[in-house]
Amino acid sequence: MRICLRYAKSKDEAVEMVNDGFMKMFMNMHKYDRLRSFNAWISTIMINTSIDYYRNRIRKIEMEELNANHEVEDSENILSHLNYEDLIKLVQKLSTAYRTVFNLFAIDGFTHEEISEMLSISIGTSKSNLFKARENLKKMLADAPISDQRKINY
């Protein structure tokens, strides 16, 4: 559920992803390699299920293309002072495209090349969506009332 919540827009959407993931898991149980970690196998299934869900939704929305080359700014880590639940609440407010690329790059550790292959988008679009996701997160943090910036409850 924690994995799917990162990719979902809402808890209901995450529950749908989890259900789909468990269905895939049970249908493919015979493919499980007992030499691998069971948790890692389930995590992979849930990430891939979330990406599949994203691909189905993305057909209905228009992806934003890269207009200019954006270099990703890694110098400022605006999320370092948030706890996990606060981060998830903020990430869930991002658009589907931004949320998916942000999760794959910043949380799951995939490269832009890998993301572009997974989502069938250009590397530039992946970089652009990550840049815009970070900018949106910065804006959300800046717009939060000062009393809420230490503990964000959305």
Automatic annotation (TrEMBL):
Residues annotated as domain RNA polymerase sigma-70 region: 2-57
Gene3D superfamilies (UniProt xref): 1.10.1740.10, Winged helix-like DNA-binding domain superfamily/Winged helix DNA-binding domain (1.10.10.10)
MF-aspect GO terms: DNA binding; sigma factor activity
Membrane spanning residue stretches: none
Family annotation (Pfam families): Sigma70_r2 (PF04542), Sigma70_r4_2 (PF08281)
Keywords: Sigma factor, Transcription, Transcription regulation
Top-level taxonomic group: Bacteria
InterPro entries according to UniProt: RNA_pol_sigma-70-like, RNA_pol_sigma-70_dom, RNA_pol_sigma70_r2, RNA_pol_sigma70_r4_t2, RNA_pol_sigma_r2, RNA_pol_sigma_r3/r4-like, WH-like_DNA-bd_sf
Domain called RNA polymerase sigma factor 70 region 4 type: residue spans: 85-137
Any Gene Ontology biological process: DNA-templated transcription initiation
Family recorded in the similarity comment: Belongs to the sigma-70 factor family. ECF subfamily.
Protein name: RNA polymerase sigma factor
